[in-house]
Amino acid sequence: MINITLPDGQIKSYDSPTTPMAVAKDISEGLARNVISALVNGKQTEVNSTIDQDASLQLLTWNDDLGKKAFWHSSAHLLAEAILAHFPNAKLTIGPAIENGFYYDVDFGEESISEKDFEKIEAKMLENARKKSAFELYPVSKADALKIYADNPYKTELIENLEDGDITFCKHNDFIDLCRGGHIPETSIVKAVKVMNAAGAYWRGDEKNPQLTRVYGISFPKQKELTEYLHRLEEAKKRDHRKLGKELGFFTFSEKVGAGLPLWLPKGASLRRKLESFLQRAQQKAGYEMVVTPHIGHKDLYVTSGHYEKYGADSFQPIKTPNENEEFLLKPMNCPHHCEIYKHTQWSYRDLPKRYAEFGTVYRYEQSGELHGLTRVRGFTQDDAHLFCTPDQLLEEFKNVIDLVLYVFNSLGFENFTAQVSLRDKEDRSKYIGTDENWEKAENAIIQAADEKGLKTVVEYGEAAFYGPKLDFMVKDVLGRSWQLGTIQVDYNLPERFDLSYINSDGEKQRPVMIHRAPFGSMERFVAILLEHTGGNLPLWLTPEPFIILPISEKYADYSKKVLNFVENSDICGLIDNRSEKTGKKIRDAELSKIPYMLIVGEKEEQDNTVSVRKHGEGDLGSMTLEEFKQLLERETKV
Fold first, then answer.
1. End-to-end CA distance of the chain, in Å?
2. 350 is known as an active-site residue
């Protein structure tokens, strides 16, 4: 007999061997119908794989992220099979699942794929799916694998980097592919497919390698779900921050300035200032001190921190000075600078915690193909802060930072989120610095703080920073898309590397613990997500132009100025549309510009000392006195 431990701690005994599917059937037939993948001892595997010793088991359905991963990875096999049916000379490379769907990188040789081919590939995928063919994973010797792919240099390269005995193929219908596993039981579970687009991609992401075609697709177990997904995608296009940023005049890019380096226009700069002021006020109440650090730092600074070893290849090349062997880097992160600020004074335990905050601009050399609007740029400003505290203060400080992040989310309408506890990889510890003891203390502190604050959490192994574990806030927007917004990290390692200390109550030097935190993450990415979440209809207190006055003719220009001056006495800025256009057009243009309030003024309004108020997206609110309108704005601009 073997014991199978389920996620709720329940232990069930079975004759050896058994399978995840057998366990699912034992629990309920309904569960067995929905199970499409499984985790055995934390490793994803097929539902019919053999379990011949005691193990932990998690059964996965379409509703689980890893269930979707297996579904989409299996669909990538169907895509590859359909591509070969129409392009028999194509050479396949790799086809993983991604956050939404899957892709397959293909060398089409002299041929090429275009949108006109998508429909026939989708039809072939569904035709093959309906054959109800099982996905069968089986071992292949290295020699045999190399023979099978003798005419495919890409698969050959992959196989040559594998150990003999660790090579598996997957078969369904008459199609085989080099594959590690993680498939759904059989093809007919896939009921709806869509080839989304095709784009260029270098083999293994290296510009020196051959360029391939990356064919993207998505699939679902029901046609209704595909229809809903495509609808959400259309909504997302309308909300694309790149489109809204251009239409609303928030930001732009210039090839002459450089790819991935945004230029903030006046309205966008206004939005940034409001966000910074909002967070700065909250930080001041929480005991933070603002600091400013340079845009460059000596290379040795990042060698000391360990960032250069880990991320030097992703940074801009060092800046050489006239002095021999002296090199600087564009600042890739703020934490080493803040360590040096802490170190300039010998602190006592009575002085701690020290909380340093900065809107610090950093620079990282992202590959050009990975740049995307404001969400992936080469220069961005982090709402960074680093807290230095005693070990006894760590838990309370971490919980206080959680409170600050929640305050930011609640103020901006991000209510649907999960806190992800990002820990070290269970197997590969080579990616991390520091002792196991310090890592365990840091991880336990995060888990305890999240638990005491009552956060809904998930644990992800392998997602920690190289110097410490993190609590990452995964926020869902109005379209159900998940974004990582806000992060808090516990770090015992940088204080060690920078030889930071404080004097404890016994008069001895002791290492502080460091907390890294950024509620926004970066101003650029946060603004992008905020624009898409709100569709450009920002909260009034963030809107660069909260109201616009629309005189029905030039005769009311003086009254319009009077209204503007009266409202602006409350430090709420607006503008006047003095164009010689019809009032209807002025209203339409203000609606397109997403200006929250439109004040129409004419003879009656001037006589009564009132304004006729329209609200964006809602229409006419009727007549108000100037005082009533000012009070309305004051209420809506309070955070």
1. 62
2. no
Q: Which residues contact 458 (CB under 8 A, 6 or more apart)?
A: 418, 419, 420, 421, 474
Catalytic status, residue 403: no
Active-site annotation holder among 155, 179, 214, 335: 335
2 in Cβ contact with 29 (< 8 Å): no
Which residue's entry shows tokens 């956060």? 455
Residue 275 CA to its chain's centroid (Å):
19
Compute the CA torsion angle 394, 395, 398, 399 (nearest 10 deg): -150
Of the candidates 94, 55, 57, the one whose C-alpha atom is nearest the C-alpha of residue 76 is: 94
Distance, in Å, from the CA atom of 230 to the CA atom of 1, rounded to the nearest integer, reads 48
Of the listed 331, 470, 586, 614, which one is catalytic?
Answer: 470
CA 495 and chain centroid, separation:
28
Whole-prediction pTM value?
0.78
| H, E, C per residue of 427-464 | CCCCCCCCCHHHHHHHHHHHHHHHHHCCCCEEEEECCC
Radius of gyration for the alpha carbons in the chain, expressed in angstroms and rounded: 29
Q: What is the Cα–Cα distance from 198 to 103, expressed in whole angstroms? A: 9
CA–CA distance, 415 with 409 (Å, rounded to integer) = 7
The string of pLDDT tens digits covering residues 182-193 is: 999 999 999 999
Determine whether 164 is an active site residue.
no
Bridge partners, 215 (sequence order): 104, 198
Host H or E run for residue 106:
strand 101-107
pLDDT in tens, 109-131: 999 999 999 999 999 999 999 99
Catalytic residue among 272, 338, 386, 586: 386
- Is 382 an annotated catalytic residue? yes
Percent of the chain at pLDDT > 90 equals 77
Distance of alpha carbon 566 from alpha carbon 549, whole angstroms: 12
